[in-house]
Amino acid sequence: MTEPDDACRARVVLGIVGDKWSLLVVRNLRNGPRRFTELKREIDGISQRMLTVTLRGLERDGILTRTVHNVMPPHVSYELTPIGLTLREATAPLLEWSITHLDHIDAARAEYDRRPAPPA
Predict the structure, then answer these.
(1) Measured distance CA(109)–CA(101) in Å, rounded
(2) How far is CA 13 from CA 8, 10, 50, 66, in A?
(3) What is the model's pTM?
(4) What DSSP string runs through 46-107?
(5) CA separation (Å) from 93 to 27, 55, 96?
(6) What angle do CA 98, 104, 108 make, to 5 degrees?
(7) What pLDDT digit, counting tens, does each position of 48-75 carry?
(8) What is the DSSP letter of 117?
(9) At what angle do helices 102-114 and 82-100 cross, to 10 degrees?
(10) 29 and 43 in contact (C-beta within 8 Å)?
(11) Residue 17 to residues 20, 96, 118, Cα–Cα distance (Å)
C-alpha cells in the first residue's frame, strides 16, 4: 500500500517526465547516445535553452547521463541510463499513440474551433 506522501512525490516525478520536451528527448535517445546538436536538430521547435534545461533536469533525475569526450574539439553526448530505458519502454506506446492519432486530433480541434462560442 502506498503512503499519501508517495502519491505526492510520484506526481512531482510525473510532472517532470511529462513536460512538453522530456519524453521527446527520451524518444530521441532510444537508439543510443546523441550529441546536443543532434538532439536539437531532431526535436522540432525546441530552443537551445529549453533543450539545455530539459537535459539538465533529466540528468538530475537519473534518466540520462552526460559524458564529456576529451577530443579536439571536445564534445558532449547524452545517453539513457537503465532507468531511462525503462521510462522509454513505458512511454513508447503513448508516443506512438500520439503520432498515430495526430490527424484525428487536428480535425477534432478544427471542428471544435469552428463552433460558435457558448453564451456567457
Answers:
(1) 12
(2) 9, 5, 18, 20
(3) 0.81
(4) --HHHHHHHHHHHHHTTSEEEEEE-SSS-EEEEEE-HHHHHHHHHHHHHHHHHHHTHHHHHH
(5) 11, 22, 5
(6) 120
(7) 999 999 999 999 999 999 999 988 888 8
(8) P
(9) 50
(10) no
(11) 9, 16, 35
